[in-house]
Amino acid sequence: MHALLTPEIRELMEAVHYRPAVSIILPFEPKMTSKSAITLLLNKAADKVERELIENYPDEMGKIVMSKLRIIYNSLNFSTHKKSIAIYVSPVFEKVLYLGIEVEEKVIVDESFEIRDLLYSKKQIHKYLVLLLSGNGSQIYIGNTESFVKIVSNTPESVSDYIIDAPEQVANFSDATAHKEILIDKFLRYVDNALDNILNAYHIPLFVLGTDKILGHFKKFTKHSSSIIDYVHGNYEELSPIELLQLLQPHVADWRQVKQKEILNEIEKAANTKKLAVGMRDVWREAMGRKGKLLLVEKNYMYAAEHGSSEEIIYKAIEPYSNFSYIKDAVDDVIEKVLENDGDVEFVDEGVLKDFDHIALVKYY
Q1: What residue ranges of the chain have pLDDT lower than 50?
Q2: Is the full-model pTM beyond 0.90?
Q3: Neighbouring C-alpha atoms within 13 Å toward the C-beta of 146
Q4: Closest CA to 133 of 206, 242, 202, 227
């Protein structure tokens, strides 16, 4: 998350809409892939563009776009250390972006450049946090599809370390088991408090591992239930990082479901703190007021609108549309406004936000 609106993307967003508008988004790693393989991928994209231009724009404008695309191809930087490329070209505009993110291949010929196409194409990095709890202590890891690394934090990893430092020790407990359980509860509260800084730093899904008993204790008082994607029950304190990575694989295999559950958790958290706008009209108003922290929208959701009496007010457009106040797709405008104000955008599958009129906005305040 945390998409930044670079000057290059701002220029793209402000480009004059003039069809045909061609967008080509491709993997592009000259330092890792042979030039011949990249050239083959580029040529396939160009062939697809040419076919669509001949079919839908058989006039001079289509020829102009293809000519400009060939010039762009001949001047591409094969010395870059970036991971992908986005090429935008129309009869009146051209732009090449070298990106540091992995993307899915996408070729679009449309009426304008849609900023959401670049966001759609961004590959999701399967990164997540793991909190491993046991009766003896805790450990925190950050994992992805290939690695599993322990995070160094200020939290005591051992319950015995915490007991030594605990300010409230009781020496006269007749029931040693009850004494230990009280200390474990205090330790788990301390671990939960330490999660504040970690979750603020990483903003990624969290899994919590532990025995039924430990997780039962932890669930009673954790402040971070809205950030926890799942609890994995079992005694895993003796597992190596590689074994933990393998253990988590089934839980992160469907990454889309993991992300969508995280998004629904974010919505619940924002609603509880009255920082949530729901539905296109409310989302538009808050976004125009520069309050948009995280925009959540269903893929392919569009909203034709008309301006109201001020910039913050829109209404659903009804045919015949007014040439003076008509907005072809208010969702794209909201996406751009949120990005302009250092917010972020996440897309979900159709129907996931049906209870929120297909679009929601987590506000800064």
Answers
A1: 1-4, 164-166, 170
A2: no
A3: 1
A4: 206
